[in-house]
Specification:
This protein has two domains: about 60 residues, membrane protein fhac (Ubiquitin-like (UB roll)), CATH 3.10.20; about 140 residues, Rossmann fold (3-Layer(aba) Sandwich), CATH 3.40.50. Helix content is about 35%, strand content about 25%. The chain contains seven helices and twelve strands. The protein has a nine-stranded mixed sheet with strand order 6-5-4-7-8-9-10-11-12. The protein has a three-stranded mixed sheet with strand order 1-3-2. A hairpin with a 5-residue loop joins β8 and β9. About 5% of the residues have low confidence.
């Protein structure tokens, strides 16, 4: 029987759905409150740990360094010793290490609880460069000046002797005319060419970048401008081998133009 004007009993299914919605809303509020409380506790714990020396930097471990000395690395990292690992930014450490002449790339990691881990990639020396004043510089394949040396240091590297004066400092790049000849310094150090090439005294470089391999005893391999150096060197070495097989001494091989080679031998 339906009674007009009076409220009707609520369908049990509708009532159940409403209870479920209310429960979910309540659970969502409780979860949000719990997460908020947890975030506050984590922040408090983080601040507390950062204020203690539990994670203070106490050690520095470096790998990949051969020319870069431990003293140089310690000089850069000294300012960060004792700083909390939790607040330490690795960027200033990386920038400091990158400023060292031999460092091409660096990666700094936090080794919890108290260690800075530094991985270094160094420039590789490929040649010595003699200035007009007699100063000898060691340079990388991209022309970066790595250090000044004296005596017999790096004696196994080819010696470049420009006929024009230049001014460089450690960390700077050599003039373009010299940098373009550096691939030749790399070539003459290969085991194959060392076996074929007579003893090399120096690599003379003109102001325009033309290269001449000066052999011990005065012979010359004139390779000209720094284009197609590998082909020019190959042609010059072929002629040197022929002359040596005939018992002749090479005064010069001019391979500055690959298809018009000039030779003087006796």
């Amino acid at each position: 029987m339906i009674l007009d004007g009076l409220p009707q009993p609520m369908d049990e299914r509708i009532r159940g759905r409403r209870r479920a919605v209310k429960w979910e809303r309540g659970r969502g509020r409780r979860t949000a409150l719990s997460l908020g409380a947890l975030a506050v506790l984590c922040a408090v714990a983080f601040l507390a740990l950062r204020a203690t020396d539990v994670f203070a930097v106490k050690r520095v471990v470096a790998s990949g360094a051969e020319q870069v000395t431990r003293e140089q690395i310690e000089g850069v990292t000294a300012a960060f010793m004792g700083e909390s690992m939790l607040s330490l930014s690795t960027r200033p450490v990386e920038e400091g290490i990158l400023a060292l002449p031999y460092v091409e790339a660096v990666r700094v990691r936090r080794g919890f609880p108290d260690t800075l881990e530094i991985e270094v990639l160094e420039y590789v020396p490929v040649a010595r460069l003699q200035s007009a004043s007699g100063t000898i510089w060691v340079v990388a394949d991209d022309g970066r000046v790595l250090e000044g040396v004296s005596g017999g240091q790096f004696a196994d590297l080819p010696l470049l002797v420009p006929d024009a004066s230049f001014a460089v400092q450690v960390g700077e790049t050599v003039p373009a005319a010299i940098a373009e000849v550096l691939p030749l310094a790399v070539m003459v150090r290969s085991d194959e060419l060392r076996a074929e090439l007579p003893e090399l005294a120096e690599i003379a470089v003109s102001a325009g970048g033309c290269a001449v391999l000066v052999l011990e005893g005065g012979g010359e391999l004139r390779l000209g401008a720094p284009e197609r150096l590998d082909q020019k060197l190959g042609v010059a070495l072929s002629i040197v081998r022929q002359c040596l097989a005939q018992g002749r001494v090479v005064e010069y091989v001019d391979a500055s133009v690959v298809d018009r080679v000039a030779v003087k031998a006796k």
